[in-house]
Amino acid sequence: MKDKTGVIHGRFQMLHKGHMEYLLAGKERCQHLIIGICNPDPILTKYSDANPHRSLPLSNPLTYFERYQMIQGSLLENNISMEEFDIVPFPINYPELLSNYAPKDAKYYMTIYDQWSMDKKAALEEYGYHVEVMWQRTNEQKFTSGTEVRRRMVAGESWHHLVTDFVYRYVKEHKIDIRIRQIAAEEGKSDD
């Protein structure tokens, strides 16, 4: 029997096909899926020893609204109706705030890849959320990552096969790939 409400979360700092596997697996488990976007605002982005790159500008080039639109468009493209999901901010770095964005009595679906995943799971459980781990894999077992998609954009390599068709069209239409190359160039100058 499906859960009534499920919650899933991620930064989605380039929604890719690995994210879609995660989102669709969550949707299969519940009637209504709430998708939480982590680091929804730069002031809610916090450094983590477990995953230090997550707080860098090149790791967070997309706005909350852009990520919202990519998730919504990709779910609709996968025949998930608007009535079956909501998208909300999800400041995982501040777990004490999460009940303002998603229902506490929902099932919180996660996947485990690294220490950062374990830290998030522990934080959710500490605040009383019911967590279900859908799968545990190593980083090497990931289909891809947002880091890899962004790296390919910066290097001028092919990346279309790593993202949904909707995301590819959206990035090109809004020139997000150009912005990512500009951010990388700026970060490269500051490393000199």
Task: Tell me briefly what this model is.
This protein is an alpha/beta fold. It contains six helices and five strands, in the order E-H-E-H-E-E-H-E-H-H-H. It has a single domain, classed as Rossmann fold, CATH 3.40.50.620.
Descriptive notes:
Keywords: Nucleotidyltransferase, Transferase. This is Nicotinate-nucleotide adenylyltransferase. Helix 2 packs antiparallel against helix 5 and helix 4 crosses helix 6. Helix 1 links the parallel strand 1 and strand 2. The chain has 192 residues and is of the alpha/beta class. It starts with a strand and ends with a helix. Helix content is 38%, strand content 18%. The protein has one domain: Rossmann fold (3-Layer(aba) Sandwich). The model has no long low-confidence stretch (mean pLDDT 91). It is built from six helices and five strands; from the N terminus they run βαβαββαβααα. It has a five-stranded parallel sheet, sandwiched between helices.
Tally of extended strands? 5
Largest beta sheet, briefly? 5 strands, parallel
Q: Can you tell me the CATH topology? A: Rossmann fold
Percent strand: 15-25%
What is the distance, rounded to the nearest whole angstrom, between the alpha carbons of the first and last residues? 57 Å
The total count of helices amounts to 6
CATH superfamily: HUPs
Strand order of the largest sheet: 3-2-1-4-5
Radius of gyration: 16 Å
Whole-number tally of structural domains: 1
The CATH class, by name, is Alpha Beta
Unreliably modeled segments: none
Average pLDDT reading: 91
Shape from CA axes? globular
Q: How does the helix and strand content classify structurally?
A: alpha/beta
The SSE order reads EHEHEEHEHHH
Multimer state: single chain
* CATH architecture designation: 3-Layer(aba) Sandwich
Work out the helicity level: 25-40%
Organism: Petralouisia muris
Keywords: Nucleotidyltransferase, Transferase
Protein name: Nicotinate-nucleotide adenylyltransferase
